[in-house]
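Input record (Table S2, row 289):
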Amino acid sequence: MEMKFFKYKGTVFPSPSSSVEDLDFLENEFKVRDDDVFNVTYPKSGTTWMLEILSLIKTNGDPTWSKSVLNWHRIPWIESKGSAKKAQEVKDNPRFFNSHLPRHLFIKSLSDSKAKVIYTVRDPRDVIVSHFYFGKISVFFNEFESIDELIKEFLWSEELPYGSWFDHVKEWIQLVGKENFMLNSYEDMQKDLRGTVIKICKFLGKELDDTALDSVVKHSSFKTMQENNMSNFTQVPDTLMDQKRCKFIRNGICGDWKNHFTVAQAEYFDKIYNERMLGCSVKFPWEEK
Ligand code: PPS
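Output record (PPS complex):
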């Protein structure tokens, strides 16, 4: 029987989406180009949303591409099976990619390049809730019996796909301050999507007029994406993702954890979170009281 997960250098990855050979090629042989753009996240932090925004920025707000081509073909997950080898052949620049890889397993040639990285973070309590529901519908994550079980796993274990949230975030934010690195948050996107799109355009050196900006915002809204069959993963076979149980583009709010955590769970989470983030130089939106 095929294993659901495998390990690469100690980190867990879902077998249906990647392999040791793919990750090894990506880390050691893939050639980053200076004008590449990477949409990097810990899973369930807003990857697909950023993918949509980048697709729309690329087409100057024209939604034709987003409405006619599957999102993973528009902007592939670079660690997924065969993706890196295929990307080497791509002639067009700039290339856009998504990735959930932790920094220490990322493409080595990134360090010597001017390629841009947009790293999106999300309140880890909402990441837990989103992960909990995704585990019920997909083969990429395990299903947990209760939120309580997942909270403990999230806080203490290294065995979730793509590793620990704490390590992932702490490693990537070491690049804050570099001119080719942009730290973004799901919370900022919710608070001011237009402002975030403007920031992304500035970071990418791309100028969009007001009409184009309005179109990016409109076509990357929760409702539009939920209804867009090229963006909502309904084209993925049920055997991999069964959305009859729950939609991939599920709820899309900040603070959903308040509907799922008990007071005791929230207090326990805060305690361990504060311990594990001690000394972290970045203040995140969800830490503001
Ligand atoms: S994955 O599987 O790691 O690629 O998932 P990811 O795309 O990172 O995260 C999925 C969550 O993002 C929400 N989402 C959105 N929220 C607001 N607006 C838009 N347009 C949007 N698109 C996706 C999605 O609903 C998942 O969050 P939850 O909390 O489960 O709803």
